[in-house]
Amino acid sequence: MASDKKSRRLQRARRTRAKLRLHHKNRLCVYRSSRHIYAQIISADGQKTLTSASTVEPELRKQLKTGGNIEAAKLVGTTIAQRALEADIGNIGFDRSGHQYHGRVKQLAESAREAGLMI
Fold it and tell me: What is the pTM of this model?
């Protein structure tokens, strides 16, 4: 495998997902682009998306000036936690997709924890 930045990030992501699969935990998977941030909770076997939230959704988009900042990540984290608790999903693993635990990714996780999700 090439040792460029993207392939190293994907390698870290695969390693994290493999460990979460061994522990049979649902995972909160985060994807971020420059303009938006997406979060979804995926079942332990990786076959089904249980719930999701993103800055692309119309009800969240109305509340935000832009989707690519920390305030947007806070709102998505709170929303995904509320939807997970409504679906009776409490304890999950955090899949940061190989990204650093910093900035928007960190803020999403912290706001989900504050809203009651056990990460």
Answer: 0.89
